[in-house]
Amino acid sequence: MVAITVNRYILISCHSLYDKLYTPRYICLMLVFAWVFSFSMMIPPLMEVWGRLGLDPPTFSCTILKKDGKSPKKMLFVLGFILPCVVIIMSYTCIYWKVRQSQRNLQAHNSAVGPKPNSVEPQFLQRRDDVRLTRLMLTIFCCFLLCFLPLMLVNVADDEIRYPTIHVMASVLAWASSVVNPFIYAGSNRQYRAAYRKLLCCISSQGHRDIVYQMTTPGGRGSLTHSHSGSGKTFITEMLQYNAAMDKASVVRTSGTE
To answer: Name one GO cellular component term (predicted).
Structure first.
């Protein structure tokens, strides 16, 4: 999420650097770094050097447990939650300031030269789409914050697990974050809603399409037939040709002799 937010910030605020930084090579390096950094934070408890991984019966969860009275939870809270949140909040603040500045400059330009109907520049349309996508990512971040902040605070404040019920409720809220994003996408973006409808319609109609073909012929519906003459030497076959691009079927009649 931090990488996506920084991507949005560079795209909107430092557009001239975007094409230089986000090449296929650099994107692969960023992905590798994100995975390595995330996994490296779990190496100490995984190797039982600093804490350990195991079942916590009071909260019914597999989590980081203390070993010799020590646990890396507070360090993980800082590196895995506080630091990313600070970077994300600062990035979105800079994005908001940049967008407001661009809007003021555009209003001043329109006031000076006068509005020109039907003369919207493609660059302005692209910038508007970028802002919409950034707003969507901000909504996702806010939901992520609401889902995971209680769990992080409970793990740090109640390290001895004196209130297991609160831990369970916070864990359930964090797990619920996995199903929130699709609803956010559908609720805030028309393109996602159209894609969902298209996907669901394709799934529901695929099985029916494999069995029944709607054929467009001059006489209406056609059928696949195979007929022979009385002598068995001459045959006429109606062949079904399906055009996937046009989503139509046609009938081609062929004849021959045996």
So the answer is: plasma membrane
